[in-house]
Design a protein that fits this description.
Layout lengths: L4 H15 L12 E6 L10 H19 L3 E3 L3 E2 L4 H10 L3 H18 L10 E2 L3 H16 L3 E11 L4 E3 L4 E2 L2 E2 L7 E10 L5 H6 L9 H11 L1 E11 L5 E6 L10 E4 L6 H5 L5 H12 L3 H5 L7 E9 L6 E7 L10 E4 L5 H10 L7 E2 L16 E2 L10 H14 L3 E7 L4 E2 L1 E2 L9 E4 L3 E4 L27 H4 E3 L6 E4 L3 E2 L1 H4 L3 H4 L12 H7 L2 E7 L5 H15 L9 E7 L2 E3 L2 E2 L10 H8 L1 H10 L7 E2 L2 H21 L16 H24 L2 H20 L4 H19 L4 H10 L16 H4 L3 E8 L2 E9 L4 H10 L1 H7 L4 E7 L3 E6 L1
Parallel strand pairs: 1-2, 1-26, 3-4, 12-14, 26-27, 28-30, 31-34
Antiparallel strand pairs: 5-6, 5-9, 7-8, 9-19, 10-11, 10-13, 10-18, 12-15, 13-14, 16-17, 20-25, 21-22, 21-24, 23-24, 28-29, 31-32, 33-34
Helix pairs in contact: 1-24, 2-19, 3-4, 18-19, 19-20, 20-22, 20-23, 21-22, 21-23, 22-23, 23-24
Bound molecules: ligand ANZ and zinc ion.
Zinc ion binds next to loops.
Length: 822
């Protein structure tokens, strides 16, 4: 019978489902292993990236299970988000309906792939029994002062009357209606992640199982800078401007100052002067540009003099004050001392506006006048009493001086900003807050959670958030005084939902609590987390932040969530990432329909190591399909000879048997190490392929029938068991065909016999007319005839003797072979 993957996969999917085989068995006597892949957004269809991510995770989960671990391998959906809302606007369906229909479809597709998930633990972030706890967590943050409201200038589309995320602003226009986007000051909710900046940074050191590149990205994102805050007095004013600098050693070279256009002093400093108009025009212009547009390295530095001067506290000279595009309001103090001789941005700006460039640090590298800023270390010059000392030393001494003079202090700055979580959207977790005229901001009492979405809402795509206009939702009573009050209409950023789902899986159906501590304690941390590198910064940082916070309030048993992290590469076609817009998408369904899920899985695992990008190849898919056909045929042809037996009379083994025994053990060793230590699934699979080839050959060689059958059976068991995590359907089918009663997926992983791999070999020299041509490893003790045969059949030797006449062959066992030719 040919390999009928369609029938096989349906059959086993049904059987596994009925027996609920993937249910997590909480057997505390076993060591646990928590395997997790990043859960998907329910777009309705899985793509190749999912197939890859989830196949990798599935191999690990199945392997660990066969290794005797108690494995937790859950799946769920990151189900809030804008696409559902857009669909509601377009087609008038409730986002809840749209989302849940998509989830149903995707569950089917994930099952079709044979992924061993415990669906009873599914976590869906838009389910009320999930987001109830997201809201509960918000209240915990609020109680600790880590959730707060702040005024912030958001992107605003005046036509849609809605707030836009940065990625919805395209060239300054609203992505939906092409209206010019403006800024609008709105009260927004924030999480105070900056309180955890130092901890999040320090503990990166603990993440030994994380890729170095991800750790570096997190470090840079947190962006710790050591430096000082220094006060610069404003001339003809009693005010001072505070700057943040990482280079206090360059203070004698500060020849001007720059304020962010939004700096609160600017308006006052120019008020009534001849500069007022140009300054206001410039501020207005900056208002329409994003942070990236303003500060990217290829944006030209641009600014205006505001007509006022500051006093450099060390030189006591007056220096002009500018506002410019390259200084941002929300970093440091929003003001800088500009040192054009030693900073590129300041250098470019000073050149453009003809401002003094004063060098204060020198080294052997600097010759003559500066053609570019000197940013290296060196010796102080033009710096009064600090002249002649090293700049790195001067940093400390100048900070000491500033502190003693009371004009500043040493400080640490983080690039990390507080996390803006407010979204003016419907389809997200409602923020559980109430506004009362008398009592102010009042949190929803915990026993009144969850704050649910209204069932009937109108989605027009204009007039801001549908929640804001929904009287049924907005109107409520104050939990404190009972008077009429209004609900918060903002929902949370969906990154909030995904910041704790891995904890929920440990006890996903708990209605009393967010999860049971003991269960979380047993399962956490996640032993292996797998997902795309695009989440290297935000998701992983937020998940770490949540875990640390939950640990601090006694909810989480661990303060870091993920022990080991693997970031899989992208799936490419014709060198580019698969995407609809490029039209280079291969749909998983197409592959599953034409070749089966086992082939699809095998291909994505075989075509490249997990961390590398994978180039799609139709031939590669064909090749994997052919291989599975070969496995199928091999087993089918061997069914009658299948004879499982543990004890093998070693004295009966001939050389062919010994070779087979070697191949079996060698394959087990290679596959085990490749999966366990290195995630080298591609080489693991090729070791299995080699074993299949060798088994085909072995099957045909005559010898001791009983021994042959026992070893053939061993080889087949090895092929099927090692292949099972990669291709779960075909291996289960063939295992069953051989008469085995239990599931192959409940089999113990195979141990290898080290002794069988250390080959009992000797090195033989092969000469042609007395000249050494090749050295060969052959089994020790083989006789003259066998040795002669091996030598003559050798490829290299063949080249030397081709077309020649062999006069004689001298074979000395364990030593050499000499071939005499003419
Ligand atoms: C004087 C100076 C001299 C600086 C020099 C650098 C080199 P990091 O390392 O990223 O923390 N800066 C401070 N606040 C800023 C803001 N709001 N917008 C733009 N630039 C700002 O960078 C710190 C340096 O960036 C600070 O040190 C300041 O310039 C600038 F040779 O002060 B420096
Ligand atoms: Zn009240």
């Amino acid at each position: 019978m040919p390999y009928n993957f369609g029938k096989i996969e349906k059959k086993w999917n049904k059987a596994w489902d009925e027996k609920n085989v993937f249910k997590t068995k909480e057997d505390k006597s076993k060591e646990k292993f928590y395997q997790l892949e990043m859960f998907p957004y329910p777009s309705g269809k899985i793509h190749m990236g999912h197939v890859r991510n989830y196949s990798i995770g599935d191999v690990v989960a199945r392997f660990k299970n066969m290794k005797g671990y108690n494995v937790l391998h859950p799946m769920g959906f990151d189900a809030f988000g804008l696409p559902a809302e857009n669909a509601a606007i377009k087609h008038g369906v409730h986002p809840d309906k749209w989302t849940n229909e998509n989830i149903k479809e995707m569950e089917v597709q994930l099952k079709e792939l044979g992924l061993a998930y415990d669906w009873e633990r599914e976590a869906v972030t838009c389910d009320q029994d999930y987001y109830k706890w997201t809201q509960w967590l918000f209240l915990q943050f609020y109680n600790k002062g880590l959730a707060y409201k702040k005024n912030y200038a958001v992107n605003w589309c005046p036509s849609c009357k809605t707030v836009l995320a940065n990625e919805q602003v395209v060239n300054g226009l609203c992505e939906r209606c092409d209206t010019a986007v403006t800024k609008k000051e709105l009260d927004q909710w924030y999480f105070k992640i900056t309180d955890y900046a130092q901890k999040l940074l320090d503990d990166i050191e603990k993440l030994e199982g994380w890729p170095e590149k991800v750790k570096i990205m997190q470090k840079n994102w947190i962006g710790r800078s050591e430096g000082a805050e220094v006060d610069f007095k404003i001339a003809d004013s009693d005010k001072a401007l505070k700057v943040f600098t990482t280079r206090p050693d360059t203070i004698y070279g500060a020849t001007y100052m720059v304020l962010a256009p939004e700096h609160p002093y600017v308006k006052e400093l120019v008020s009534g002067s001849e500069y007022e108009e140009t300054v206001n025009t410039f501020i207005e212009k900056m208002h329409h540009l994003s942070e990236i547009e303003r500060t990217s390295t290829d944006t030209e530095k641009e600014g205006v003099f505001i007509g006022r001067y500051a006093i450099n506290p060390l030189t006591e000279k007056q220096i002009p004050i500018y506002i410019a595009n390259y200084v941002l309001i929300d970093y440091g103090t929003g003001a800088i001392m500009a040192v054009p001789a030693h900073d590129q941005r300041d250098f470019d700006f000073a050149k453009k506006y003809d401002i003094e460039i004063k060098q204060v640090i020198t080294s052997d590298e600097v010759k003559g006048e500066l053609n570019e800023p000197y940013t290296g270390d060196g010796v102080m010059i033009n710096s009064g009493k600090y002249d002649g000392i090293k700049a790195s030393v001067a940093i400390k001494e100048i900070i000491d001086y500033i502190e003693s003079a009371g004009i500043g202090k040493k400080t640490i700055n983080f690039r990390l900003r507080d996390w803006l979580i407010s979204r003016q959207r419907f389809w997200g977790t409602p923020i559980p807050m109430i506004y009362c005229e008398d009592c102010g901001v009042v949190p929803v009492p915990e026993d009144q959670l969850p704050v649910l979405h209204p069932k009937t809402v109108e989605f027009k795509g204009t007039k801001g958030s549908p929640l804001e206009g929904c009287e049924e939702f907005i109107n409520t009573t104050c939990p404190k005084c009972g008077k009429p009050a209004r609900r918060e209409s903002d929902t949370m950023d969906t990154f909030v939902d995904s910041s704790w789902y891995f904890l929920r899986y440990t006890d996903a159906n708990n209605n009393e609590k967010i999860f049971d501590e003991e269960k979380a304690n047993y399962w956490m941390k996640v032993d292996q987390y797998i997902g795309g590198v695009e989440h290297a910064i935000l998701h992983l940082l937020y998940a770490r932040f949540f875990t640390k916070f939950m640990y601090d309030i006694g909810v989480s048993p661990v303060d870091e969530p993920f022990e080991n992290l693997l970031t899989q590469g992208m799936v490419l076609k014709d060198g580019a990432k698969m995407s609809k817009s490029k039209g280079n998408v291969v749909s998983p369904k197409e592959i599953i329909d034409n070749y089966g899920a086992d082939t699809a899985r095998l291909f994505v695992l075989f075509a490249a190591p997990p961390e590398r990008d994978l180039e799609w190849s139709d031939q590669g898919v064909e090749g994997c399909y052919r291989f599975l056909n070969r496995v199928y045929r091999l087993v089918e042809e061997s069914v009658d000879r299948y004879n499982k037996q543990d004890d093998l009379d070693m004295t009966k083994l001939d050389n062919t048997d010994k070779e087979m025994r070697y191949s079996i053990n060698n394959a087990i060793k290679k596959v085990t190490i490749d999966i366990e230590k290195r995630f080298n699934f591609n080489t693991a699979i090729s070791s299995i392929m080699t074993l299949v080839n060798e088994t085909y050959k072995y099957k045909e060689v005559e010898g001791n029938e009983e021994v042959r059958n026992i070893l053939l059976s061993k080889a087949i068991d090895t092929i099927l068991i090692t292949l099972a995590p990669f291709a779960p359907f075909i291996t289960e089918e063939l295992w069953n065909m051989l008469g085995n009663k239990e599931s192959i997926h409940d089999q113990k992983w195979l141990e290898y016999d080290e002794k069988a791999i250390v080959k009992d070999t000797v090195n033989i020299v092969v000469q042609v007319n007395g000249k050494v041509r090749v050295k060969l490893d052959v089994a020790s003790g083989i006789d003259k005839a066998a040795l002669e045969k091996i030598a003559l059949e050798n490829d290299k030797i063949q080249k030397f003797i081709q077309g020649k006449q062999i006069v004689k062959v001298i074979a000395i066992p364990n030593k050499l072979v000499n071939i005499v030719i003419k």
